[in-house]
Amino acid sequence: MRPSVLGRSRARSFEARLRVLSAIVVVIGALAFISAAQAIEITKHSRDNDRVNAILLSGDIEPDDLYRLQVFITKLPNKPRTSVILNSRGGKIDEGIKLGRFFYRAKIETIIMKGAECLSACALAFLGGRDARNGKHSRTKSSAGVLGFHSFSKSFDREKAYSADDMAALVQDAQNKVLDIADYLADIDTNLDFLRVMIRASSSTMNIVSNDEALAADIRVWDEQEQALVSPDNILDILRR
Question: Is the model's pTM score more than 0.85?
Answer without folding.
Answer: no
